[in-house]
Task: inverse folding
């Protein structure tokens, strides 16, 4: 659904069309409700990692991506250009979930060459400099999975065994599971609370 959270293997449901138009409540007294928690996956990474700067960003009341871009580029909040905002946003999303500099270069610049990869690497280093707790969180997940303990448990008790062909892919899948499953479970908990 538009702005909704669903955890599916392989799909990017945020890019799906608004599915509410395809649902009809059988009972006219019932209503279909959708939930959209602003930046919920990044908020979950901040919470799960305990990263002080990330939590400060989300508690500031300002636009999180603009604050992150300002910190990444070492600029004032109002000095961030649209290009820096875009690159900062892509850096936060990709790096927070363990993407490589090569992948980030393609996401930001549309190509992967020595110059774009070097710039992506610089952006990721700046991100981890300001958000060291997220790097530690990722590294801890990676170490656990690399030692053969493949079961992760989110704060709601949901578990998943993480299988992947290499360490980097395991880390990405593990971090993704923790952030997205926690976000999905939080949305579900709030929806049930509303129902009750």
Result:
């Amino acid at each position: 659904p538009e702005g909704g959270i669903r955890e599916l293997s392989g799909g990017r449901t945020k890019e799906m069309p608004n599915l509410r138009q395809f649902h009809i409540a059988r009972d006219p007294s019932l209503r279909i409700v959708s939930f959209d928690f602003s930046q919920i996956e990044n908020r979950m990474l901040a919470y799960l990692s305990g990263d002080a700067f990330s939590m400060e960003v989300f508690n500031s009341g300002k636009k999180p991506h603009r604050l992150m871009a300002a910190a990444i580029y070492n600029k004032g909040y109002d000095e961030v250009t649209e290009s820096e905002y875009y690159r900062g946003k892509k850096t936060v999303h990709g790096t927070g979930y363990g993407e490589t500099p090569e992948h980030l270069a393609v996401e930001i610049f549309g190509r992967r060459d020595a110059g774009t990869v070097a710039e992506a690497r610089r952006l990721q280093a700046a991100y981890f400099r300001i958000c060291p707790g997220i790097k530690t969180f990722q590294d801890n997940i990676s170490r656990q999975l690399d030692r053969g303990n493949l079961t992760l448990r989110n704060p709601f008790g949901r578990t998943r065994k993480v299988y992947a062909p290499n360490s980097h892919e395991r880390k990405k899948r593990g971090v993704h599971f923790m952030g997205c499953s926690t976000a999905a479970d939080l949305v579900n908990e709030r929806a049930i609370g509303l129902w009750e």
The CA atoms of residues 57 and 64 lie 6 Å apart. The longest strand covers residues 151-153. The first helix runs from residue 40 to 49.
